[in-house]
Design goal:
The complex is a heterodimer of chains A (155) and B (253).
Chain A lengths: L1 H24 L1 H6 L1 H35 L2 H4 L9 H6 L2 H13 L1 E2 L1 H8 L3 H13 L4 E5 L2 E5 L7
Antiparallel strand pairs in A: 1-3, 2-3
Helix pairs in contact in A: 1-3, 3-8, 6-8, 7-8
Chain B lengths: L1 E3 L7 H14 L3 E7 L6 H4 L9 H5 L10 E2 L1 H4 L4 E5 L5 H8 L3 H21 L4 E6 L5 H9 L2 E6 L3 H15 L5 E9 L3 H5 L1 H12 L3 E6 L2 H6 L5 H4 L4 H15 L1
Parallel strand pairs in B: 1-5, 1-6, 2-4, 2-5, 6-7, 7-8
Antiparallel strand pairs in B: 3-4
Helix pairs in contact in B: 1-13, 6-7
The chains are: A mainly alpha (155), B alpha/beta (253).
């Protein structure tokens, strides 16, 4: 996990230096192509934002794992069916999140938080924990991360 | 809503049919689904002979729900609508349903949840009533998870009381379900006539959930041998009046 963090920071640093390079040394290119000037820094900033969000999620997972202990989680196989008996045996805080995703079918941490009336960051951590446990799948679309129960691949 | 109980024979099926019909008679659009795949009985009780597709087929992903639902509104001759989805009573189907694995059950939960949404939102149903198997069965818990209200049919039998109490703590509470109790087969003696409050207090103390209704042990119901829809054919019977009260309470919830 720490290695991943380190990698994230390295990637961020690279992105920042790319911006600097563009600003300091590409004046000619900026003058010759105003289109690029407008688009590229925006894209880079967008990438920074995405990386920061990913970093944030990883931090949340780490905090959760430390809170609830990671032994139980590591013994669970990567893909596990989220059936009602599994829901019953889950700790209360995760069951609430898992049931909300079951009901919504596919949801972001924001949407789950609206239903459970818990903080988005808390739900994000629980959702990511359920992904690690193999009960949920996660898919990114642009800046949004969607969580869902993968019924097809488990058929 | 899901009708459930700890033990068998507590009156889930009788109550679910009669409550569904009562709600339809009150002008609601109601869908009654037989999720008791271990001992299906709605096809027999409602005398539906020609069934092309069963709920089993919907949960197996063989067909859409439109092919399963049967419109029995003409049976009740009122303003409301009454549809049913039946469980296949053949031994082969029961065997097939009791040997499903966890992955299938997980997909069945997904299909049940989307069925609930499509019936209530797209198809404009006011109520879905699930009749379930007693105890901790996959299909019953799937129904409980999909329901907004769980109605527990229970008797005063000691083993039933203890089992129901455990289920309240270790099943319905864990899924944060609104639970209501219907006391069934209560002896129609002095204690019932004068002690309704006592029973209410007893339920509150034992189960810590509200009492939705008390149904005395009616010989007329046994005599009918499951051949009639009681609330429809006996509109003046006390049982029908109790079901009317329960339906009115549910409408308020």
């Amino acid at each position: 996990m720490f290695v991943n963090h380190y990698e994230c920071f390295v990637r961020l640093n690279k992105l920042f230096s790319t911006i600097c390079t563009h600003v300091k040394h590409n004046e000619e290119a900026i003058v010759s192509s105003q289109e690029v000037l407008r688009k590229k820094p925006l894209q880079i900033l967008e990438k920074i934002r995405e990386s920061l969000e990913k970093l944030n999620e990883k931090m949340e997972i780490m905090i959760e794992l430390q809170k609830h202990g990671r032994r139980d989680i590591q013994t669970i196989p990567q893909e596990a069916p989220l059936d009602v008996m599994t829901l019953l045996s889950m700790p209360d805080h995760l069951r609430k999140t898992a049931m909300t995703v079951c009901r919504l079918g596919r949801a972001t941490a924001d949407e789950v938080a609206q239903q459970t009336r818990r903080a988005r960051a808390v739900e994000s951590a629980y959702l990511n924990q359920l992904v690690i446990m193999g009960y949920l799948k996660k898919e990114r679309k642009g800046r949004k991360a969607y969580f869902y129960v993968d019924k097809e691949s488990q058929g | 809503m899901a009708f459930h109980s700890y033990k068998g024979g507590t009156g889930k099926t009788l109550l679910s049919i009669n409550l569904a019909v009562t709600l339809a008679k009150h002008g609601k659009k109601v869908c009654l689904l037989d999720l008791d795949f271990r001992a299906p009985s709605l096809a027999t009780l409602l005398k539906v002979e020609k069934v092309e597709y069963w709920l089993n087929d919907y949960l197996n992903g063989v067909c859409e729900i439109d092919k399963v639902l049967i419109d029995l509104s003409d049976r009740i001759a009122d303003q409301g609508k009454f549809f049913v989805g039946l469980a296949n009573p053949s031994v082969e189907a029961i065997r097939d349903m009791s040997s499903k694995d966890r992955k299938w059950e997980m997909r069945a939960l997904g299909r049940l949840l989307s069925l609930r949404n499509s019936l209530l939102n797209a198809k404009g149903f006011d109520y879905i009533v699930f009749d379930t198997s007693p105890g901790l069965q996959y299909s019953s818990i799937n129904a409980i998870v999909s329901a907004d209200i769980v109605i527990v049919a229970t008797t005063l039998d000691n083993s039933d009381v203890e089992g129901t109490r455990r289920m309240l703590r270790e099943l319905y509470d864990l899924f944060e379900k609104k639970t209501e109790i219907v006391l069934n087969k209560i002896l129609y003696d002095d204690s019932l006539r004068s002690g309704r409050e006592k029973l209410q207090a007893l339920v509150k103390e034992t189960y810590e959930v509200p009492l939705l209704g008390v149904i005395p042990c009616f010989c007329d119901i046994s005599r009918a041998e499951g051949k009639i829809i009681f609330v429809h054919e006996k509109p003046d019977h006390p049982f029908t009046r109790i079901l009317d009260e329960i339906a009115a309470k549910i409408d308020k919830i």
